[in-house]
From TrEMBL:
Belongs to the class-III pyridoxal-phosphate-dependent aminotransferase family. It holds the Pfam family Aminotran_3. GO terms for molecular function: pyridoxal phosphate binding; transaminase activity. InterPro entries: Aminotrans_3, Aminotrans_3_PPA_site, PyrdxlP-dep_Trfase, PyrdxlP-dep_Trfase_major, PyrdxlP-dep_Trfase_small. The gene is spuC_4. Signal peptide: none annotated. It comes from the Bacteria. It comes from Starkeya nomas. This is Putrescine--pyruvate aminotransferase.
Length: 450
C-alpha cells in the first residue's frame, strides 16, 4: 500500500493522540507526516516543513541519515532483540554504556538503560529511594523540582512537573515533591535587582524550602541545565554553583535531566559541561539515538551506584528492569550517533553556527509582535505579545497555551515551519546539522508566520 494513502479513511480519533484535544480529533484529521530529510519533514500532500524544534527536541542529527539507518539494519540482521538482564546482555549495549560513562561529567560512571526520558527519570527516583534505604536513611524521599519544569509522563515524574495542570486532572499524588522557582532572568527579577542578587534570592528560596521540609527528608534536586520547554531562560550567573554548594551542605543529591540538553544542544556534549555543573546522576534520552530508536539512560556516580550494588548483594538481586531497556537496535544506533559526533565534528559545527543562529533570532526583534528573543546553544525562544498588551509574561510551560503563541504555531504550519508554543512565547531547537542557509530559510518562514 502507498504510504501516503494509509489511514486516509480512518476517523482522526482512531488513535488517541497525546497532548491533543480528543474531541477535536472526532472531526479533524491530524496532520500526517510521511517522510523526512535533513531538517525537513513532508506531509502526505508533499508539503515541506522545517522542524524547528527537531520534532520533540530529539531528531538532533536530522531525518533519514543513512548511517543511522544502516546501523539499525545491521543490528536487526545480527540480533534484533535480546533483553539486558539476569546476567545477560549484548556487546553493543556494553560498549554504549562504556562510552557514555566515559563521556558523562559524573564521577565514576555506571549506566542503566531504559526506553524513554520519563522512564530514565522515573528509575532515578526509584534508585534514589533504594540507595537511601540501603544507606539507613529511608526517610530521605523528597525530591525538589522547579516550577514550570517537565521531567516526564509517568506517575512519579508527573509528580515532579512544575505545572499543576499536568497533575490535578489525573489526581497525581505529589506528597514527596517540593517545588522552587524556575529562574526566569531577567523577567522574574524585582525592579533594580542585579543578576547576582536574583540568583541569591533563588538560592535562599531553595534553602528555606529544604529547612521547612526537614533537610533529613530531602533526597535530591532535579533540574535541566537549561530548559527549552520552560521558555528557554538561561540560568542566571552562578546559579548552579550556588545551588550545588547548598545541596552539598545538606547531603542532597543533584540530578541533571539532560533528556533535551544532552548530545550537543548547548554546544558541548552535555548541558552540565556547558554550565559547569557536577551532577551526581544524569538522565538522557532523545538525542542519544537522535530519536531514531527509543532509548534512554541514567549515568550514576560511583558513590550513588555503590549503594545499589550493596543493596543488591544483600538481597541477592537488584529487582528492577524492563524488556526493552537497552534494546540492541537502539544501542547500535546510539553508538553510531556518538561516532557521527566525532567523525563529522557535530559539536564544532554547532559552535560555529551558534552566532548565526543567535543573530537570526535577534533579527526578529524588529517585528511588532516580538517583545524579546532568547538564545542558548542551538535553541531559543521568541517572546510575543500584541502591541499594547503589555510586556512579556513569565513563561511557564502550558500544553494548551492558546492565544497568540498557539496562533503563531498554526501560522508557522501554514508557512512551513514547526515551532513549539508555550505561554507567551514559542521555542525553537532545530536539528544540530542546520546550515547557515537553512537558518536563513527558517527565520524567513518564521517572519511570514508572524
Ligand atoms: N525530561 C525532559 C526535560 C523532557 O523535555 C522530556 C520530554 O520532553 C522528558 C524528560 C520525558 O521524555 P520522554 O518523552 O522520552 O519520556
Amino acid at each position: 500500500m502507498n504510504v501516503q494513502a494509509r489511514g486516509a479513511n480512518h476517523p482522526g480519533n482512531m488513535v488517541m493522540l497525546p497532548f491533543s484535544n480528543l474531541r477535536r480529533l472526532r472531526e479533524e484529521r491530524p496532520l500526517m507526516f510521511v517522510k523526512g530529510k535533513g531538517i525537513y519533514t513532508f506531509d502526505e500532500h508533499g508539503r515541506d516543513y522545517i522542524e524547528a524544534v527537531s520534532t520533540f527536541y530529539c531528531v538532533n542529527l536530522g531525518f533519514s541519515d543513512e548511517e543511522l539507518i544502516e546501523a539499525a539494519v545491521e543490528q536487526l540482521r545480527a540480533l534484533p532483540m535480546y533483553p539486558s538482564g539476569i546476567h545477560r546482555t549484548v556487546p553493543v549495549v556494553m560498549e554504549l554504556a562504556e562510552r557514555l560513562a566515559e563521556k558523562a561529567p559524573v564521577r565514576g560512571g555506571h549506566v542503566m538503560f531504559a526506553t524513554t526520558g520519563s522512564e530514565a527519570n522515573d528509575q532515578l527516583l526509584k534508585f534514589t529511594w533504594y540507595a537511601n534505604r540501603v544507606a539507613g536513611e529511608p526517610q530521605r524521599r523528597k525530591i525538589i523540582s522547579r516550577r514550570a519544569s517537565y521531567h516526564g509522563g509517568t506517575i512519579a515524574t508527573t509528580a515532579l512537573a512544575g505545572s499543576p495542570a499536568l497533575q490535578e486532572a489525573f489526581g497525581i499524588p505529589t506528597g514527596d515533591s517540593l517545588f522552587v522557582s524556575h529562574p526566569t532572568w531577567p523577567i522574574g527579577a524585582d525592579p533594580g535587582e542585579t543578576e547576582e542578587a536574583y540568583t541569591d534570592r533563588l538560592v535562599e528560596e531553595l534553602r528555606q524550602t529544604i529547612e521547612a521540609a526537614g533537610p533529613e527528608t530531602v533526597a535530591a534536586f532535579i533540574a535541566e541545565p537549561v530548559s527549552v520547554s520552560s521558555g528557554m531562560f538561561p540560568p542566571p550567573v552562578g546559579y548552579f554553583q550556588k545551588v550545588k554548594a547548598l545541596l552539598d551542605r545538606y547531603g542532597i543529591r543533584l540530578f541533571a535531566d539532560e533528556v533535551v540538553t544532552g548530545f550537543g544542544r548547548t554546544g558541548r556534549l552535555w548541558g552540565s559541561e556547558t554550565l559547569g555543573i557536577e551532577p551526581d546522576c544524569i538522565s538522557c534520552a532523545k538525542g542519544l539515538s537522535s530519536a531514531y530508536q527509543p532509548i534512554s539512560a541514567v549515568v550514576m556516580s560511583d558513590d550513588f551506584y555503590s549503594y545499589l550494588e550493596e543493596g543488591s548483594n544483600s538481597a541477592g538481586i537488584f529487582n528492577h528492569g524492563g524488556t526493552y531497556g537497552g534494546h540492541p537496535v537502539s544501542a547500535a544506533v546510539a553508538l553510531k550517533v556518538l561516532d557521527i559526533f566525532e567523525r563529522r565534528n557535530i559539536l564544532g559545527h554547532v559552535q560555529s553556527i551558534m552566532p548565526i543562529w543567535q543573530k537570526a533570532l535577534a533579527s526578529l526583534e524588529d517585528h511588532p509582535l516580538v517583545t524579546a528573543t532568547r538564545c542558548f546553544g542551538l535553541a531559543g525562544a521568541v517572546q510575543i505579545a500584541r502591541p499594547g498588551e503589555g510586556g512579556p509574561v513569565a513563561a511557564s510551560p502550558s500544553l494548551a497555551p492558546g492565544g497568540l503563541s498557539e496562533q503563531l504555531y498554526q501560522e508557522g504550519l501554514a508557512a512551513g515551519v514547526v515551532v513549539r508554543p508555550l505561554q507567551g512565547c514559542v521555542v525553537l531547537a532545530p536539528p544540530l546539522i542546520i546550515t547557515e542557509a537553512e537558518i536563513g530559510e527558517l527565520s524567513r518562514r518564521l517572519r511570514v508566520a508572524l
